[in-house]
Write a structure and sequence with these properties.
single chain; binds 1-deoxynojirimycin; TIM Barrel; 17 strands; globular
Length: 516
């Protein structure tokens, strides 16, 4: 069975994991220093949010050079060392490839803007249209995912350019064959250096409607979609994307045991597992894995999670493989969002995530119960937070430094250094690796136990899954392969609930795992 099917993937937000250079920002050498911890935890792969040179307007998701490491994070030699050290511990390294857009400082965009080096049409340029009074306006009504129009006038070129995120993140023109060729070469650069695969940023955005038709109107009443009254039919999920992914898959397959997981950004703010599943192709010819973010949008409820999981499983093609995620660098952490700080709830969610069918993705700090931080306006770094505060604090609350111990700066950086975001005060109150590592009752011990269990019980990775009829507060399922089986029963309620299987009633927030 391939590593990306049985393995557990751990997402590292490199700025926030461990600072070895002493500047208050995490780096590759810092990650390297913590590989023993990750090996001890038992994870199989790390996914690094972007580490490439970038002006950091969107903290690395605005790439200025795809084939180098930003000095903030280290050097190519640091990367090589990280790959070698990770592989030595049987940990794969997955990079974050942003194919939809580059930074406006990328030489490709600079060339395109100045119509140089044959790159005139590498980005999405348009003259726009003339309004009734002769005034020029963008060619259509497309809105950027971060708010505002998706078109910005470029006085240097005398045309509008498209950006589905910040104006500093111009969208590439994927209908131009040279763009695909160039981007695929960037991917090969990292595969040749030993990377084991990619997380593909907003991969369902890359191709746009050829005629640039406007999106239909659609009313959204709730924030943050209120700024975006449209159904993104024309600027997302275009059918040509699948052909590109098939070619990308062939490229990856040439390198053997690689993996691509796609971020399928939801349309209209609504989760659409069926859309995510289309990016798996026939199960073997497009992405290996595609994110479905349904679990992130559900309250702490057995019925709601069961419905989301069933919908996801039904959507996936026969030979396709699911993956599951509860937290990431764009969302409030599950520990805050749905667990409201309760370790009992976090234990339930960990068992749900790690014992389902498919590949679990953990977000750094999830295993010790890290929570969102409350940040002051002046502490915010994320452009989204700065724009929408106080309505929405942005994504910084879920990106604070990893909590290694309870001392100053939580062991993330030296005591005399100022971390790029403040450390959460819970580090001093037991929410740290050091405080939990040797405590068998800790959340960290629980995560580690579940990860080890996956390694010892074949049904937990390879087995079928069947949900059992149960009380609405109880989520129960069996996993079976060959003669080996497990029954997992989770009581989402704080009070006693009947067990759907033999055995006494379940205590509040009880997790029961029995093996056959
Ligand atoms: C999705 C990434 O997860 C997010 O962090 C980023 O801001 C946007 N894509 C734009 O690249």
């Amino acid at each position: 069975m391939s590593w990306w099917k049985h393995g557990v993937v751990y997402q590292i937000y490199p700025r926030s994991f461990h600072d070895a250079s002493g500047d208050g920002t995490g780096d590759l050498a810092g990650i390297c220093e913590k590989l023993d911890y990750l090996a001890w935890l038992g994870i199989d792969a790390i996914w690094l949010s972007p580490v490439f040179p970038s002006p950091m307007r969107d903290f690395g998701y605005d790439v200025q050079n795809y084939v180098d490491i930003d000095p903030l994070f280290g050097t190519l030699e640091d990367f090589d060392r990280l790959v070698a050290e990770a592989h030595r511990r049987d940990i794969r390294v997955v990079l974050d490839l942003v194919m939809n857009h580059t930074s406006d400082l990328h030489p490709w965009f600079q060339d395109s803007r100045h119509r140089r080096n044959g790159r005139d049409d590498w980005y999405m340029w348009s003259d726009g249209i003339r309004g009734p009074l002769g005034r020029r306006r963008p060619p259509n009504n497309w809105r950027a995912a971060f708010g505002g129009p998706a078109w910005t006038w470029d006085p240097e070129r005398g045309q509008y350019y498209l950006h589905l995120f910040l104006p500093e993140q111009p969208d590439l023109n994927w209908r131009h064959p040279a763009v695909e060729h160039a981007m695929f070469r960037q991917a090969e650069f990292w595969l040749d250096r030993g990377a084991d695969g990619f997380r593909l940023d907003v991969i369902n955005y890359i191709v746009k409607d050829a005629a640039l038709r406007s999106n239909p109107y659609r009313l959204h009443r709730t924030f943050p979609r209120r700024h975006d009254q449209q159904n993104h039919l024309r600027d997302r999920n275009q059918p040509e994307t699948h052909d590109i992914l098939k070619r990308f898959r062939s490229l990856l397959d040439r390198y053997g045991a690689t993996m691509a997981v796609g971020e399928i950004y939801p349309n209209e703010g609504v989760m659409e597992p069926a859309v995510s599943a289309t990016y798996l192709g026939n199960g073997t010819d497009e992405l290996h894995l595609a994110f479905d973010f349904s679990l992130l949008a559900r309250p702490f409820s057995a019925v709601r999670y069961r419905r989301a999981l069933e919908t996801w499983y039904q959507a996936i093609p026969g030979s396709g493989w699911p993956c599951h995620v509860l937290s990431n660098h764009d969302k409030s952490r599950a520990m805050t969002r749905v667990c409201r700080g309760s370790i009992g709830r976090a234990r339930i969610l960990a068992a749900m995530l790690l014992l389902q069918r498919g590949t679990p993705f953990l977000y750094y700090g999830e295993e010790i119960g890290m929570q969102d931080s409350r940040l002051r306006r002046t502490e915010l770094q994320d452009p989204l937070g700065r724009k929408y505060w106080p309505l929405f604090p942005g994504r910084d609350p879920a990106r604070t430094p990893m909590q290694w111990n309870g001392r100053t700066n939580a062991g993330f950086c030296l005591p005399g250094t100022r971390p790029w975001l403040p450390v959460h005060e819970s580090a001093a109150r037991g929410c740290s690796v050091e405080a939990q590592r040797d405590d068998p009752e800790s959340l960290l011990a629980w995560y580690r136990f579940l990860i080890q269990l996956r390694k010892t019980r074949p049904e937990l990775t390879r087995g079928d899954l069947e949900f059992l009829p149960s009380h609405r507060d109880v989520l129960a399922w069996t996993r079976r392969v060959g003669g080996s089986s497990s029954i997992i029963i989770l009581n989402f309620s704080e009070t006693m609930r009947p067990s759907p299987h033999e055995g006494p009633d379940l205590r509040g927030l009880e997790v029961r795992i029995t093996h056959g």
